[in-house]
Amino acid sequence: MNRKKIAFSLSALAAGALLSIAVPLSASAHISADPSESAAGSFSVITFALPHGCDGSATTSMRIGIPEGVVSVTPTVNPNWTVAEEEVASATPTEDGAGTPVTSRTAAVVYTAITPMPDGVRDTFTLSLPIPADAAGKTLEFPVTQTCEKGETQWDESTVAGEAEPEHPAPAITVTEATGDEHGHGATAAASDDHAATARTAASGSSDDVLARVLGVGGLAVGAVGIVLAVTARRRPSA
Predict the structure, then answer these.
(1) Fewer CB atoms inside 10 Å of the end CB: C or N, the chain?
(2) DSSP string, 99-149
(3) pLDDT tens across 17-67, in order?
(4) Separation CA 75–CA 111 (nearest Å)
(5) What is the value of pTM for the model shown?
(6) DSSP string, 38-57
């Protein structure tokens, strides 16, 4: 029996098992925003996924900060939470589509749990909002304060390209160039985005969950190969 082959096979099996367990946990550890990008001047429906509590403590509220420049927000009802908006005076007053002056904006949307959400489950929160027309090439961050029965977590650190991901990154989307088809569709475009977002959430949750599943399957495959090699080496007679 070739001891080296058996040792290699067992190592591959262990590595595959660890990968299948560790990757899904790490990939879904942060609060994510889906989709991750949207065109300047468009209406976007953004879903924020909350995957866990605060170090094991149940979540009682989610405060989602709205970037400066976003003039309005329409929160989607979640039957497990009450919802409220925090209004502040706009730094730069603007006008709505009808030419009416807009002197205030929504600074944050706060979801408060009717019953605290246990650490071992996940939930999602969806907002419909207009992407600023002058934001192409920028990243819009939505800092989140996750309050729990014991303690809270501030998801407000910026992610910088080329640098290591921070411990508590703020959910964010990248604003792409306008496509020329953002205006004139109004509620129809928003309704279409709502339908698409709902379908994505129902089918697979957040994009992080999809990545976790793919990498997890890869880890199991590595483990399976290790088992086959181990069995083959064990059955082969020694020279």
Answers:
(1) C
(2) S-EEEEEEEEEEEEEEEEEPTT--EEEEEEEEPPTT-TT-EEE--EEEEES
(3) 433 333 333 445 799 999 999 999 999 999 999 999 999 999 999 999 999
(4) 9
(5) 0.67
(6) EETT-EEEEEEEE---BTTB
